Amino acid sequence: MDSKSNEAQAYNYNGYAQQPTAAYGGATGHPTDGYEAAQADQTRYSYDQFSTQAQQVTHPTEQAAWNGVDPQQSEQNTQYYAQPTAQAHHNGEEYAAAGYGSIGANSGQGEIHNAYGASGYGYNQVAPQPTMQPVHGGQLQPNTGFGPQVPAPKPKKEERIDSSQIPRWSPDDKTDEPLKKYYTRSGASPPPSTNPFIAIDEGNCSPRFIRMSTNYIAQDAELVDQTKLCIGAIIQPLAEQTNAEEPPPIRDFGEQGPIRCSNCRAYVNPFFQFVDHGKSFICNMCTAKNTVPEHYYCNLDPKGFRRDRNDRPELCRGSIDIVAPADYYDTPVTDPCYLFVVDASYPSLMTGLLDTALESIRDSVDELRQSCPRARVGIITYDQNLYFYSVKKGGKEPRLDVVADTEDPFVPVVPQTCMLPISDEKEADLLYQILELIPKVHQFNHVADNTGMPKNDKRAFGAATQAGAMLLEKIGGKLILVLSKLPDHGVGKLESRDDIKLYHTSKESTLLIPQGSFYSKLATFCAQAKVSVDIFACPNTYVDLATLSQLTRTTGGQIYYYNSFHAHKDGEAFHRDMYRNISRYTAFQAVMVIRCSKGLSVTQRYGNFFAKEANEMEIPVIHCDSSFGIMLSHDTKLDTKEACIQTALLYATPEGERRIRIHTISLPVTSTLCNLFRHSDLDTIINLSLKQAMSQILYKCSPKDARKALYTACIESLFIYRKYCSTQHSPGQLILPEPLKLLPLATLGMIKHNLFHSGQSMDERAFETALVGSMPTYVACSFVNPCLFSLTDMPDFACVEGKDGRVFLPPVLKLSSDSITEEGVYLLDDGRALKIWIGGSAPQKVTDQLFGTVQVVEGGPAVLQLLYDEKASPTSLNARVWNLITQLRRNCPSFKTLSIVTRNTHTGSSSLDVCQFFDHLIEDAARKNKWNSKDLGTKSDGRCGEMSYIDFLCYIHKGIQDKFF
Ligand SMILES: [Zn+2]
Hints:
Structural class: alpha+beta
Number of strands: 36
Bound molecules: zinc ion
Helix content: 25-40%
Distance between the termini: 19 Å
Number of domains: 4
């Protein structure tokens, strides 16, 4: 083959560009054949022409750059550069510039010769610097010798990829531009979930509330099946907004209640079409014609819109809060109740858990008195007995009742005497008295009996939880459980069944199946009583979270897990988690219904809720972090221009008002594959894929099968895109659609994640499974692809508060040990925790500022702490690093702990922390040496776990090619 013409073809390829806004709402008339459609689109939007003329690259632009190496000339390191002109303009705002990555290879050989990367999709905040790394001669950089002792990869003749040019997450926010605005009816795909933006509700709700996996809806099931992309959404009905965003307006329709479709019960929304001079409306969900009630009548303007359209939020906004009429609920609103059930057995005393919990409760109550004056608070403690604290009406002292029958527990008090209204000064004082009394009640629990064993080393956790649920049965509320060890006494006692002999076997997943039926029945009881359960698990050994997590999963609760808890180590995280749990926006007695346009239905739901009826999700307590996933499927072919998803959440506010929060999103229906790919949303796909894989691991398959399913889906999707949407006839190139250009990296991140590997402790696995089930999208992204920052090489703009209060993050480094040097200090955010790595030769002045004058190289991780210097100037390194940490911890459902990781340079020894740190550097090939702490899979699953990012791209490419032949 003529290499030059081949090359010209490759560079001429005009993948696609963001579709202009004009396409929105006009999705009809597309050719039905995918391939023809691609050509049609290409003709229409051919503004992505590459220059075929080779030029020496000097400065890749920030906008987008295609740097590649000519297959035939790579020894000379010739680079080609083309300036794309495509940009997506949306109401004057610009989003992700069209970029395009492709990897050329000799057809049939599976060898990658060229790599083109493009900036565009951002991941974190701002960096005004060029995002492209210098080009390094088309070969992998040799390892620096630091960190894991990776042998430098042997230069393979065929491996000529410039690793700095393959697609990666890159900063998107610009310091010299105002904060980006996202107009929800602009037709553009939402900005990345991890980027800062201001959502402007133009009729569709903000992506913070509903974020779709594709922003076009497929016309029929065959189209969806073809793409192999999951079609669904992540719903976060009470998500936090920025200060610049308007909260959903509140509408009161009076006793008549909101206007709804009499056929499908959809709520009034901007897509109801008013006809017959305003006397009727056609429902956008089911196309039924309804009569407009007299009190709601308004005539229409010449364009057919109601004249009062812009005055009524329900007719122009995608999110509204409706005051619920009395007939929407059958029970009166009760005061928000918070019942703490705290472990006071021997290990709880010895690890400082009891003291930490009591202090955290005290601070949380202080906060509740400000934020939720209607709240009532009560406490139960337990060891092998149950301890109830109550105050008689008008009483001045707390009273203690002890229940020893933990096989059939009962509640010796009534809610009126033990759930204290904290807004009342006297009652709050009594609660503080109880908190002071508790350590005295349990002070002898660490004293040994005559056998030398502690007297109270048993925990009647099941009985305490059951008693708590019974106490709240009539009033609902939050049950907050604190646990130090496996429940081993009374009802709900569990066996220690963590059999490591089953690890790495086909029976491993049986350890995730809950023990017995006690906790599943208790969970159902709680859900029906409108009680949510949160668990703070602080064990030193196996605690069977697989069984206990049923309580949180069914009731809308949250689980926190501090492995090997000790107050010194985990006290701060526990305290901060408890504080956020109590202080975040919380609503009670919630029920959510999700409706879709006729022809679509919800087939799968993920998250923490109780499925009462087919389409009702009961959520006893819902908060701003509560997040749910749904999968959609087609019942019939859609015959409308747009399809709609609407969520309705009936809930009680902390102030005691019943509201219905409505979120509506209406999207164009398409008959072309390319529109689905072009408007797909990687962040949502990552989150849904994780949820889907987790639910499969739990019930159907092994981690290995889940891994295989993930990369098979990646290959299938890219194959379909390649086959039907790409105009490049030769299969010799890996073509990545712009919105999915990071799909291979995200897939690699998933299959390398601990979640998908055997050998992790069962509690850790059960915890992460629970975490993923209710994980918001912005957390899922860094969970899969951690962020690595250099603290010693930050640009001046980074981590300093600007005039408008914005704090920009430093550039994100490549997730490879190549990015790490002995002279540097680095911070890694893996979505759950933050880790600082200190190089052995880090400058003394840097380490002094950050960690004090401790001898870094001699010290182990335990003695090092990041100093907090209140007096530090705002531009000092110390203040900037704290700014960065604060920014990364913002809006997270649980507190990201900070650990310091160092390697003893004298002995060369490394801790588990070091291994875990390097495990996160997913672009590296895994190493079969002391650094490798993971089961990496076997040959039969493609050894994907071992692969470097480049290897993985080759593997994906080969997989696609194999499908062609
Ligand atoms: Zn309807």
